[in-house]
Every structure is written in structure tokens, then in C-alpha cells.
Amino acid sequence: FRFKDSLAEDLRSADLVISHAGAGSCLETLEKGKPLVVVINEKLMNNHQLELAKQLHRDGHVLCCNCSTLVETLQSMDLSTLKPFPPGQPEKFALFLDKVVGFQ
Amino acid sequence: TGGHTTEILRLLSCLSESYSPIHYIFADSDKMSEAKIRSFEQKRAETFSNSKFTLDRIPRSREVRQSWTSSVVTTLYSMLYSLPLTYKLKPDLILCNGPGTCVPVCISALLLGLLGIQRAIIVYVESICRVETLSLSGKILYYFSDYFIVQWPHLKEKYPKSVYLGRIV
């Protein structure tokens, strides 16, 4: 498909997601608790976009590969090694901001 | 723009009713943020019946990977819009998270502060995508913001004046 407004429904029914390293795609998938394989194309991406994918991989939340190793990764992957991705905590930000502006 | 809007709305999601009115400023070229903001504010109004908000657009100050020198020119052009807008809104608090759009707004706020017209607290939250390096907006506003928040420990080490609260989006 071209551009859907939201992939939420597709994500909900998926058992495995294979995605590029875009931050939105990665985070949305991980927050729905779906196993994620990130395919990195170093030639296309500028360095900063890789930072998040690399960190998520380091922390054991995603599997990484590039276009040529994708098939082999899918064949040999063990999804049970992936660690769950805890949600962010905007309430911590709210507490911080309340102190900053003086609402206590 | 896109990811920035999603992130900033998440940051706003736990704020109390006291943060009102909220004035959203985004780039004129941004087609999707308005819908996301309206949807967020609709939900917010269900909890806080008196919540107010406004939407304003200013010219986009920089395209992705635009050169330094032309970025200065386009940012100055955006300031022709952001300065009168910031003067009109007279914010007490500016919350931004990294799109080029925030730079002219923050510079405008700093100018108004210097002129004694309105002193705004500037809080900058770097995107969760930034694990090891700061965005260009971040590099600039690290020195000009009152509070600079990063979401990964490595950045806190590199930029000691920053605040680290963990992942907040």
C-alpha cells in the first residue's frame, strides 16, 4: 500500500514485523509488543537515523540485518531472545515541568 | 513535523490543566500535524473541559540537510513571522523538541526577554531518536534553553548541563 493513515491495525494482527530503521516504525512496533527485525541500508540512511536502531539492537529489543543477510536472519532467528520494550514515562516529564514552573 | 509532533503530544499527555492555553506552532509545509493536534486536544477536552489551544503556522526554517548558510537566511525569514507571533502570544513557557521550526521561535523569545518585554522559560526535549548525537536544533538550543532534556544516558555524559529523566515519550 502507499500511505495509510495508520498502521495500527496491521501491527495488531502481525506476528512479526520487518522494517526499515525509521524511528516511528521501530517504536510503534515495539510498543505493540511485536517482534521486530530491522533492515538497515547504510547507503540510504544518514547516520543519525541509525543511532536508535543500533541502540535498540544493543539493548536486545530488535534483530538487525541488512538487505543481503535478511533471508539468513529470518531462517536462523530466535525471537525468544528479544527483550520487551518498556513504555516511556511522560509522567516523569510532567513532574519535572511542574517543579520548573512552580506548580507543585 | 511528523515524528516531532507525535513526541511532543506524548510529552503533553500527562500535563495538568494548569498548562492552558497551549499555543501550537508548526511549519506551514506540515500537512499532518494539525490533525494530530486536534485529535489530541479533543481527548484532552474530555478530561479538562476548560482547556484552550491555538494553532499557528510559520514558514519552515530549514529543509533536511539544507546547507548552513542558506539555513541562516531561511531561519531569519521565519523570524519575520515568529517574532510578531511570539510577541502576540507572550508565552510563559516554551516547550520544543527539535524541528527547525523551534529555533526562530526560541530566538524570538530570547529577544523579547532581552528587551524586557516577556521572559519565557525555554524547555527543550531532544528526540528519542537522538542516542549519541544532538540534532542541529539541539546543538544550538543547548546553550540558549533554560532546561535541556535528553532521553539517553550517553547524551547526558556528553552534555553535562542536560537533564536526564530516562525515556519520556
From TrEMBL, chain A:
Residue spans crossing the bilayer: none
SUPFAM superfamilies documented for this protein: UDP-Glycosyltransferase/glycogen phosphorylase
Enzyme Commission numbers on file: 2.4.1.141
Keyword presence, rRNA-binding: no
Xref: InterPro entries: Alg13-like, Glyco_trans_28_C
Domain Glycosyl transferase family 28 C-terminal: start-end pairs: 1-86
Top EC class of this enzyme: transferase
Pfam families: Glyco_tran_28_C
Family as reported in the entry's similarity comment: Belongs to the glycosyltransferase 28 family.
Protein name: UDP-N-acetylglucosamine transferase subunit ALG13
Species per Swiss-Prot/TrEMBL record: Cepphus grylle (Black guillemot)
Gene name linked to the record: Alg13
TrEMBL record, chain B:
Keyword annotations of the record: Endoplasmic reticulum, Membrane, Transferase, Transmembrane, Transmembrane helix
Official protein name in the record: UDP-N-acetylglucosamine transferase subunit ALG14
Family, similarity comment: Belongs to the ALG14 family.
GO MF annotations in UniProt: N-acetylglucosaminyldiphosphodolichol N-acetylglucosaminyltransferase activity
Source superkingdom: Eukaryota
Localisation per UniProt entry: Endoplasmic reticulum membrane
Keyword Ion transport: no
GO cellular component entries: UDP-N-acetylglucosamine transferase complex
Main location: endoplasmic reticulum
Classification lineage: Eukaryota, Metazoa, Chordata, Craniata, Vertebrata
Summary of subunit composition and partner proteins: Forms with ALG13 the active heterodimeric UDP-N-acetylglucosamine transferase complex.
Topology versus the membrane: Single-pass membrane protein
GO annotation (BP), single: dolichol-linked oligosaccharide biosynthetic process
Record keyword Transmembrane present: yes
Species this protein is from: Cepphus grylle
InterPro entries xref list: Oligosacch_biosynth_Alg14 (IPR013969)
